Amino acid sequence: MSQNPVHQTELDTLLAISSGLNSTGGNDRFKNIMHQLLSDVCKTIKQFDITDEEFWLAVNYLNELGGRQEAALLAAGLGLEHYLDMRADEKEAASGEEVGTPRTIEGPLYVANAPLSQSFARMDDGSEQAETMWLQGQVTDLNGKPVAGAIVDIWHANTLGGYSFFDQSQSEYNLRRRILTDEQGRYAVRSIVPCGYGCPPDGPTQKLLTALGRHGNRPAHVHFFVSAPGYKHLTTQINLNGDEYLWDDFAFATRAELIADPVKITDSAVAKQRDIEGEHTEVNFSFTLVGATGSEEEGRGKRARVKE
Ligand code: MBD
Ligand code: FE
Questions:
Q1: Which residues of the chain form beta strands (DSSP E)?
Q2: Cα 165 off chain centre by
Q3: Taking the mean position of all CA atoms in its chain, how far away is CA 40?
Q4: Which of the four, 40, 126, 143, 217, has the lowest number of CB atoms within 10 Å?
Q5: What is residue 3's predicted lDDT score, i.e. its pLDDT?
Q6: Which helix (DSSP H) or strand (DSSP E) does residue 64 occupy?
Q7: Cβ(108) to ligand 1 under 6 A?
């Protein structure tokens, strides 16, 4: 591409100064990243001959995004959070390490320090008319050996796709629990079958998606953090098979190995054993953890989280 050398020099000088390359203080890695990022933005402005009006629309959009606390939602919707998973998967594959249950994105709706129970918990507060879900499974290592005392941290939406805390109409920690696995590495919860999530229709994330001709829906899913001393932390989700958005998740989190088949339980003896009245839906999902090589792998990555 031909460029006016005088103007290119002027831009180079501007970007070097604005990203602090000529300053002594600050952080070198951050300076270099900002320099690349600003260069890319300027290149895009030039390439598309972006108007002042378009530029200020974009600046104001960032204000809206922050004002509505939707920056992390947009990161998921643009596939950037999934891209971090792709990179982590790639690094694991390159290292030749064995892999366990696949990771998938955390998303923006986790709340830390949910009530902790041994082996079992009821997750729903009973306020919704909904299909009862019995969710159970086992945590094992790569050899199939049970991992006792693992923490299975579970969160999911209600029948309207809303998450407690973010949806102020729900009770505190509704549909959020941490379960310690038993001697066989097992966990079980009674909850309600969640529905898929949709981005706030009047929010900035949906506004951007609509301008891209995209929807902002997720299939019905359940989130998990699974952790235990000596094992790598796992962040993942399961999708309930049969949802129309199963392979059309706006956040790109679906993976074939993470699809669970809901089973209708009609046997009243099973229901009675679980203290459930009548028919309900059973979901089975087990996890394979990989041994950690250092203690830093045992914890979830640092990220701003509610109540953490
Ligand atoms: C969700 O429930 C979710 O899991 C993600 C990733 C984004 C928005 C809502
Ligand atoms: Fe979610």
A1: 116-118, 120-122, 132-140, 151-156, 176-180, 186-192, 221-227, 234-240, 259-260, 263-265, 280-284, 287-288
A2: 16
A3: 27
A4: 143
A5: 63
A6: helix 52-67
A7: yes
Name the strand (E) or helix (H) holding 138: strand 132-140
Distance, in Å, from the CA atom of 138 to the CA atom of 285, rounded to the nearest integer, reads 7
Within-domain flag for 46: no
- Structural domain for 197, as ranges: 100-297
Residue 111 sits in a domain whose CATH number is 2.60.130.10
Counting Cα atoms < 13 Å in the Cβ hemisphere of 283 gives 26
Total structural domains within the chain? 1
Distance between CA atoms of 213 and 248, rounded to whole angstroms? Answer: 14
Ligand nearest to the CA of 155: 2
Q: At a CB cut-off of 8 Å and minimum separation 6, what does 97 contact?
A: 290
Question: Given 3-state DSSP classes, what are the helix, strand and coil percentages for the chain, each rounded to the nearest 5?
Answer: 30, 20, 45
The response to whether residue 204 sits with its C-beta less than 6 Å from ligand 1 reads no
* Ligand 1 site, residue 78, Cβ cutoff 6 A: no
Sign of CA dihedral 197, 198, 202, 206: positive
Instruction: Write the burial class of residue 175 (CB in 10 Å: 0-12 exposed, 13-18 middle, 19+ buried).
Output: buried
Those residues whose C-beta lies under 8 Å from the C-beta of residue 166, and which sit 6 or more positions away, are 109
256 falls within a domain: yes
pTM above 0.90, yes or no: yes
For the CA of 161, the closest atom of ligand 1 is 2
HSE-up of residue 85 (Cα within 13 Å, Cβ side) = 21
* pLDDT of residue 6 exceeding 90: no
Cβ atoms of 280 and 188 closer than 8 Å? no
If we measure between CA atoms, which residue out of 104, 174, 179, 107 comes closest to residue 137? Answer: 179
- In contact, 231 and 149? CB cutoff 8 Å: no
Contacts 24+ apart (CB under 8 A), 31-34: none
Q: What is the pLDDT of residues 119-146, one digit of tens each?
A: 999 999 999 999 999 999 999 999 999 9
